[in-house]
Structures are given as structure tokens and as C-alpha cells.
């Protein structure tokens, strides 16, 4: 199992953190598109590392065009000598339309087309194939030599998709190199919805599971003292409640028999009662979403629960010192 760690958006610290993680033995560093751009820190990380993979987890796909993604993907992959993975997510309609001021339409179908459009652009750059992509959402039919990169030695980056529902998950299996299972998932949901949908997507194009990488970073509640444990638990409960308020994620709650909680969380979110929402996450619900325990118990439980289907996970493990983190990462990698 490969182990990644969050890079963080603070540009002044990226070089230091990237070097620390490489020395710590992690396989990759991830950035998220929250309050900052997810690609810029990876450029600095590429400059100050030699081995670690560089992953957006995630960049918002529908905030960008396929050409923009193809360009930044090429540049980062070429500069890092083939270490980039573009992780894309759809986000939800209000963010796309109201935060990014971009159109929203049939996210699974549009994501499929976006990835295929990127691949068509890269095929033009790397394999000299004519650029003639005409779809419902994207059209790319013009590429002159002045706009095609010359440093094509390392080819295209890998592309992975984040997904929750079965339609987007199947698209990931069909057109992507891997998938990020949303942290807001339960084993019951993964086994009944996620894995069958991946297999359906792979079957469409004749790919095997061995050609597809599944990433899953589960919630962890732990700490080296009672105060740290309580803080960790409160933060994770609030995070679970935040995700649970999203109508599209109700099916995940239903997988453990608490689907009726979703509209209540949604109503509270509209009232801005974010911290109070976390108090509705019972210990049973928490256990379904998170690995909970003392630091020594975390890695064995991750391996027990998820080891039969997860190819890479996160291992920041900020609740222990550097030596313990190194040991925990090595234990996961040995699985």
C-alpha cells in the first residue's frame, strides 16, 4: 500500500515540508483545492524533491477547461520528470455555478468527456495524432505548432477521479487511471456501490483491476493524551456532519441505516450551525466512518478494514512524533 501525506497550501513552507516527507518515506504528497490553488504548491514540491509523487486531491474539474488542465498537467509532469497525478473532482452545483461562475450539466457525463478531451489533446502533443475532439460539452479542433509543447519526454500525467455516486465511479473506472474514494464512505457503501461500479467501468474498456489504482484516506481519531483524542474526535465528527449534510451523499448514510439524519444536517448547515452538527454524530456513526483508537492501533485497523481493496492511503499521522510516523508509514507500505 502506498502512503501519501498532505502538502498544505502555504507556499513559504512547501519546500521544507516536501523534503521532510521525502525523508520520512512517504510515496506522494497531495494538495487540495480549498482556499488556495492546488497546482502551484506542487511546482515547488517538484523543485525540492526527487522521488515523491505529486497529486492534486482534488482540483475542481469544472472550474477549468480541458486545455487548461492539459497545459498545467503537461508542464508539471515534464518538470517533475513524470511524477504528476491530476486528481479531479466535480464539486457540487452551488460551488460551480455560484463560486466559480461556471456552467453545470450532467456531471458524470461531462467529467467523462473532459478526461477524454484532455487525452485527445495529449495524444496530439505526444503522438502527433490530429486534434479532432468534438463532444457535447467540449470541442477541441485547433492546435498549431506554436502552441504544442516540445518537452514531451515524460508524456502525459496520470489522471484519477474523486467520486461518491455509482455513475461518477463508473466513469472513473472507464476513463481514469485510478479513483479517490471520498473520505465520507463506509465499508458497507464501498462494497455494495463503489467497487461494483469501478468494475463496471473497467469492463466497458477491457481494463483489469490491476491497471487501476484505488486511493482512500479514511478519517482517523487518535491522540497521545485524552485532550488530543477529544479534540481529534470533535473535529472528525464535525467533518462527517459537514459531508453528511450534502443531499447527494445521503446514500452513504443509508448504508449504515441513518439516512434520516441527512435532511436534519442539511437544515442545520443552512442555519450555519456547523459545530452543533457534529454533536449528532454518535459513536456508532463515527466508528463506521473513522478508525478510532490509540496510536498503536491505527495502522493494524486500517489494514484490517481496507487492505483488501485500497492501493494507497494517507499517512500524515500528526498525532505521533517523527520516529513513530516513520514506523507507521513503513508498516502500511509493507502491506
According to CATH, the homologous superfamily of the largest domain is Luciferase-like domain
Reported for the largest beta sheet, the result is: 9 strands, parallel
Radius of gyration: 20 Å
Number of strands: 13
What oligomeric state do the depicted chains represent?
single chain
Helix tally equals: 14
CATH architecture of the largest domain: Alpha-Beta Barrel
Which residues form runs of ≥5 with pLDDT under 50?
none
Describe the overall structure.
There is one protein chain. 49% of the residues lie in helices and 14% in strands. The protein has 14 helices and 13 strands. Strands 1, 2, 3, 4, 5, 8, 9, 10 and 13 form a nine-stranded parallel beta sheet that branches. Strand 9 (178-181), helix 7 and strand 10 (213-216) form a beta-alpha-beta unit. The chain is globular, with a radius of gyration of 20 Å. The chain starts with a strand and ends with a helix.
Give keywords:
2 domains, 335 residues, globular, TIM Barrel, 14 helices, alpha/beta, 49% helix, two-stranded antiparallel sheet
SSE inventory with pairings:
Blueprint: E1 2-6, H1 11-24, E2 28-31, H2 40-47, E3 53-56, E4 59-60, H3 66-79, E5 84-89, H4 93-99, H5 107-127, E6 133-134, E7 139-140, E8 158-163, H6 166-175, E9 178-181, H7 187-205, E10 213-216, E11 219-221, H8 226-244, H9 250-254, H10 261-270, H11 274-278, H12 283-289, E12 290-292, H13 295-306, E13 312-314, H14 322-333
Helix pairs in contact: 1-2, 3-5, 5-6, 6-7, 13-14
Amino acid at each position: 500500500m502506498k502512503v501519501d501525506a498532505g502538502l498544505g497550501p502555504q507556499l513559504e513552507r512547501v519546500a521544507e515540508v516536501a523534503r521532510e516527507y521525502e525523508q520520512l518515506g512517504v510515496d506522494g504528497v497531495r494538495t487540495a483545492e480549498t482556499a488556495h490553488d492546488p497546482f502551484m504548491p506542487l511546482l515547488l514540491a517538484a523543485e525540492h524533491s526527487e522521488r515523491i509523487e505529486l497529486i492534486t486531491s482534488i482540483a475542481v474539474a469544472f472550474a477549468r477547461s480541458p486545455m487548461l488542465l492539459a497545459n498545467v498537467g503537461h508542464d508539471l509532469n515534464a518538470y517533475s520528470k513524470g511524477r504528476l497525478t491530476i486528481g479531479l473532482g466535480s464539486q457540487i452545483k452551488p460551488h460551480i455555478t455560484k463560486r466559480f461562475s461556471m456552467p453545470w450539466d450532467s456531471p458524470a457525463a461531462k467529467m467523462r468527456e473532459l478526461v477524454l478531451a484532455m487525452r485527445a489533446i495529449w495524444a496530439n502533443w505526444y503522438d502527433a495524432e490530429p486534434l479532432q475532439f468534438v463532444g457535447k460539452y467540449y470541442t477541441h479542433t485547433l492546435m498549431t505548432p506554436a502552441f504544442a509543447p516540445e518537452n514531451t519526454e515524460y508524456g502525459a500525467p496520470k489522471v484519477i477521479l474523486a467520486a461518491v455516486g455509482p455513475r461518477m465511479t463508473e466513469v472513473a473506472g472507464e476513463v481514469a487511471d485510478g479513483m479517490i474514494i471520498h473520505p465520507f464512505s463506509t465499508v458497507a457503501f464501498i462494497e455494495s456501490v463503489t467497487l461494483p461500479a469501478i468494475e463496471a467501468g473497467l469492463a466497458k474498456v477491457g481494463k483489469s483491476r490491476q491497471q487501476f489504482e484505488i486511493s482512500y484516506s479514511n478519517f482517523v481519531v487518535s491522540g497521545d493524551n485524552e485532550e488530543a483524542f477529544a479534540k481529534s474526535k470533535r473535529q472528525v465528527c464535525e467533518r462527517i456532519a459537514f459531508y453528511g449534510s450534502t443531499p447527494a451523499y445521503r446514500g452513504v448514510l443509508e448504508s449504515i441505516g441513518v439516512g434520516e439524519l441527512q435532511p436534519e444536517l442539511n437544515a442545520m448547515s443552512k442555519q450555519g450551525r456547523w459545530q452543533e452538527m457534529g454533536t449528532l454524530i454518535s459513536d456508532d456513526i463515527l466508528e463506521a466512518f473513522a478508525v478510532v483508537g490509540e496510536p498503536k492501533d491505527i495502522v493494524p485497523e486500517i489494514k484490517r478494514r481496507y487492505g483488501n481493496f485500497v492501493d494507497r492511503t494517507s499517512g500524515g499521522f500528526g498525532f505521533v512524533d517523527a520516529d513513530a510516523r516513520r514506523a507507521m508509514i513503513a508498516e502500511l507500505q509493507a502491506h
